[in-house]
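We now fix the convention by which a protein and its fold are recorded. The integers have meaning only within a learned vocabulary of local backbone shapes. The record below shows the convention in full.
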Amino acid sequence: MRNDPHLSARPENFRPLTPLDFLDRVLRDQPDSEAVIWREQSWNYRQFGSIVGRLRNYLTEIPIESGDVVSVMATNRPEMLAAHYAVPSLGAVLNSINTRLDAATVGWILKHTESKLLLYDPTSAEIAKHVAEKIGIPIQVFSENAEDGFNILTGTEIQLGDLSGSIKDEWAPIALNYTSGTTDDPKGVVLHHRGAYLNSLGNVLALGFGKLTKYLWTLPMFHCNGWCHTWAITAAGGTHVCLNRVDPALILQTLHEQKITHFSCAPVVLYMLLGHPAIENFQPTRRVTVATGGASPTSRLIENMEKLGFDFIHLYGLTESFGPTSLRLLSQLEKKLNTEEKAELLARQGVRHTTANRIQVLDESGKDVPWDGITNGEIVLSGNTLFAGYYRNREATEAAFRSGGFHTGDIAVVHPNGDFEIRDRSKDIIISGGENISSLEVEANLTGADFSGAKLSNANLTGADLSSANLTGSDLLGAELIGAKMEKAHMQGAILKNANLSIANLVGSNLTEADLSNANLVGAKLIDTDLTRAILRNANLSRKQLCRVKTTLGIINPDCTDQ
């Protein structure tokens, strides 16, 4: 049979796999269904198709051609979502840039990708303009007002036609995402249409997305293309509810008013919700599925969130695996267990989801570790939902794909039921402020958030960006704030007793009358910090860490240079 020429693939029975087909389908089958909600506005799929079309037309005029890289530096807004369809429909490659990166790193990425254009939103205007002037790249700002910039949210209705028909090779790049290590330059992870299609469908099945899904975008779309949910929600015919900042009060309000069914975030965001005063008046309208990754949810977190109507799914994945590649959720029988037992199960990364091929935990000799929950090994992945390689970095690509699989660097055990559980992570995976190799280690950007009076005792806020946040009078007893960014944070009267603030950035923060008894401040940056009447009994810090620090006794080290 293999030799029969009439059995070969033909246009009638073979089309390259691409997530662009998901938009083609809903435009044909459910054009009037609600597609996107943002602020006070909403668009059905026909209208969203026009937004994609207007962006596509603009890119064509530049012109953007097949193989070109288009970079986007934007928060969760409709234009960012539209870019996930408009850019690849031209055969171009979407490079979503972390909005938390500094100008030097953004400039390096733009040069490395040889980007033809940088699209940005007003929150990234300062960096975008600075980089554009320095390296000479064309830029364009998204705006709701045509006079202020580029407005694609309104205008003439556009018939898109067959977007997926423009893709001739499913192995062609669809996206380029940059990871950061501790020492090396960022690595460009090349994702292909085939993998994006398959992983999106895997997410649909794993999280139960459907036509009635209302997905709240708390997870940044720039993190591994929103774990492929930018395409998965559309595949299901659901609704994207965009939220362009992590604001606990706004999240709780949106959950209630929009009757949200799903959202994704790191556990730190859930601690923020529980600790915010608005939680006391939160009235859930239905049960909500929350997908979390990175740090495992604690029993206390699970118990408190379940009472409010939230069901957990624990995910694991990397940028190199298109985001989630495994999941752990509770069966109907397991839901009857006590809280501690459920937390123990949800701490695991589970088993591979439907479209992932193989997840192995291998010992140093390359053999599968026994399923005893004790023996450590490295997680090694293989299959269709792995990246093509690192852009312009052959050496790193070959090193990652050695010995027949992709070596994650994550150390895990396998339990008797087949669940694997991470016990350690490679040294260069977690890095504050950068787009991490492990895309599920999402550090919360809580810049300027209001947590005054919030109860956040024992919360895990490791790596969180709390710059300029209002934490006045908040309860952070025993909180984990390792490496947290807390520049110019307002923490007057905050309880930080027994808190771990090691290597935290406290430059310019106000800690007047804060209780820092027994706090760990080793390696913390204390420059221009106000510690007037602060309680520092048994706090672990040295005088040499203090630079122009204001205290009740005066300024300590007034002549120091910034460390």
